[in-house]
């Protein structure tokens, strides 16, 4: 009987996210309902991913769910788990794919243990999964997928701020270009180590406006705020083919603004379906396949039946 209980899969679901939101590099992120992952665990000896299902094939070996499940289990007194990753968030698109897996993995371990970690503990463990994937433990995506809605993270001291679920629709548009396996790491290499004071002032001001406009559902202000990033976007847009053409098409369609979603190549558009169609058309004219989704803010990681 004890064995039968242990053999049950305990599952958690976590949504995709867009990190940075323009000026809030590594700090802000918004969880949205574009896609989601489900991670299931059951007690066993040791840690391994034994099953991968869903729309995307991710490796069973070196899966970030293993790193995260191990750390969460150590905290919660679990000896080992067998892991099942149901992958709904497309990897390598700037939509917080590894973050969604990590957030769902932490939540699944909490559910198995019957005990919750503090926000900071859970998010810092999930961020170790990001270190395994991108080389740095940025916590923006994992915080959004774990807590839901709009979040901010600070690193020294490590704090996680949850602002709730903005009541607006946005658009996520994705070019289906080839990306290197270490895409986020590559997209971080193009960034400067130091920024000038005037640029830091611009980023801090922009970050404040992004938060205010999302809380107040002020789309016009949000459009301006996401485009206040004068450090990250100008460098990273070069990695996204036809970025300026897409931006022009999106703004001509009536959108309030656009920025790179996380490390790209997807973009987050402050606009509607028409802007999504304009982005896809512009990429298609460049010979690139693309698609879009109208999204709303998504809740945090939670229990879910096995897929
Ligand atoms: N803040 C991170 C970056 C998110 O932009 O590199 C990566 O998904």
Task: Describe this structure as you would to a colleague.
It is a single chain. This protein is an alpha+beta fold. It folds into 2 domains: 161 residues, Ribosomal Protein S5, domain 2, CATH 3.30.230.10; 128 residues, GHMP kinase, C-terminal domain (Alpha-Beta Plaits), CATH 3.30.70.890. Helix content is 39%, strand content 25%. The chain is built from 11 helices and 11 strands. Strands 1, 2, 3, 4, 5, 6 and 11 form a 7-stranded mixed sheet that branches. Strand 3, helix 2 and strand 4 form a beta-alpha-beta unit. Helix 2 packs parallel to helix 3, helix 4 packs across helix 5 and helix 7 runs antiparallel to helix 8. The longest helix has 19 residues. It is globular, with a radius of gyration of 19 Å. The chain starts with a helix and ends with a strand.
Ligand kinds: L-homoserine
Structural class: alpha+beta
Largest sheet: 7 strands, mixed
Give me the number of helical elements: 11
Which SSEs are present, and which pair or pack?
Layout: H1 2-6, E1 10-19, E2 28-43, E3 47-54, H2 64-76, E4 81-87, H3 97-113, H4 119-134, H5 140-147, E5 150-155, E6 158-164, E7 169-175, H6 183-189, H7 197-215, H8 219-226, H9 233-236, H10 243-252, E8 257-260, E9 267-270, H11 273-285, E10 290-296, E11 302-303
Parallel strand pairs: 3-4
Antiparallel strand pairs: 1-2, 1-11, 2-4, 2-5, 5-6, 7-9, 7-10, 8-9
Helix pairs in contact: 2-3, 2-4, 3-4, 3-5, 4-5, 7-8, 10-11
